[in-house]
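Milestone 3.1: sequence recovery, worked example.
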């Protein structure tokens, strides 16, 4: 009888353990090697996803466009992406979008003017400000936030874009293209800015005026996941909220960890400055998306000619469930003719 009881208890314990493990969802998330995506790295390194009972396999791409493509392809459940790449994707897929599979925004993680820069050489043309780039060649990865940022710069500094050649290059090749005189300036982002400066030293300098753009950074998933697994979305957002708090409270150690992590990925550079990280959904993000759509229209991007319902791009319910005061966007969907 004693042996039977032991066996029964063992079976019950095994079943309980199996059930407990089953309850922990296995998720995949695609981040980006980008200083603006610091919360993802902090959450991963400090096991904050596990803190909220999530098993998250985190990978890092070189651009948000790649991460969003992974989400579209079903390779990951969550992705980090810039408003520009997200906007272009939504416009291009508007006609063949399946509602369950469409990407939606869970939250914005960033509001910072420190993420993006224009670099040029100290030799050759005497380029001091963005205005001096009229008639020049600009290197950047097309379809990313850099392309939109260049437009913002050109409007702000009244540069005639018809007199500028845009050279499409991968982010990792921009520094060499600049040194080899294939371009006159590059539009880049951190950590690549510091990487190129560390690699080429005094041969490079930053063009004045990069502060006019304030970057945002989006956590996105599919509509299906928000509807079928809202708790997972809430848990993920809580982990990101903790990561942002840690960035603010332990900045020196976080930035040291970031520099070391980038170095291990063969991205040089140091003395990184964190941006202003905040978790929210508010009107400033809506304004940013509107401006991206306007830019897409002016440049005849696919789908930009059609009326767009920007409020349908959000899934505010998970963030509203955990921190309702961070959600300040309209909940009623109204058609917005851009």
């Amino acid at each position: 009888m004693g042996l039977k009881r032991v066996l029964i208890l063992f079976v019950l314990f095994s079943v309980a353990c199996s059930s407990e493990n089953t309850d922990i969802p296995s998720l995949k998330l695609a981040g980006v090697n980008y200083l603006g995506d610091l919360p993802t790295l902090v959450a991963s390194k400090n096991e904050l996803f596990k803190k909220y009972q999530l098993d998250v396999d985190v990978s890092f791409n070189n651009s948000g466009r790649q991460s969003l493509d992974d989400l579209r392809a079903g390779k990951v459940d969550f992705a980090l992406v810039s408003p520009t790449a997200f906007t272009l994707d939504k416009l291009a897929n508007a006609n063949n979008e399946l509602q369950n599979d469409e990407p939606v925004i869970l939250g914005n993680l960033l509001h910072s003017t420190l993420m993006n820069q224009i670099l040029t050489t100290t030799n050759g043309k005497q380029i001091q400000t963005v205005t001096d780039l009229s008639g020049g060649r600009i290197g950047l990865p097309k379809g990313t936030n850099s392309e939109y940022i260049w437009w913002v710069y050109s409007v702000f500094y009244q540069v005639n874009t018809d007199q500028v050649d845009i050279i499409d290059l991968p982010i990792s090749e921009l520094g060499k293209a600049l040194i080899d005189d294939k371009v006159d300036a590059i539009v880049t982002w951190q950590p690549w800015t510091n990487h190129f400066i560390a690699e080429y030293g005094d041969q490079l300098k930053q063009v004045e005026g990069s502060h006019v753009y304030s970057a945002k950074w989006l956590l996105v998933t599919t509509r299906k996941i928000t509807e079928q697994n809202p708790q997972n979305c809430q848990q993920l957002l809580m982990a990101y909220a903790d990561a942002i708090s840690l960035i603010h409270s332990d900045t020196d150690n976080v930035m040291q960890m970031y520099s070391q992590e980038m170095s291990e990925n063969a991205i040089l550079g140091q003395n990184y400055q964190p941006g202003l990280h905040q978790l929210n959904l508010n009107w400033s993000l809506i304004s940013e998306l509107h401006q991206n759509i306007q830019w897409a229209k002016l440049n005849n991007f696919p789908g930009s000619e059609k009326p767009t319902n920007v409020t349908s791009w959000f899934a505010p319910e998970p963030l509203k469930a955990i921190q309702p005061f961070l959600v300040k966007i309209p909940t009623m969907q109204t058609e917005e003719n851009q």
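The two ends are 77 Å apart (CA to CA). The first strand starts at residue 26 and ends at 32.
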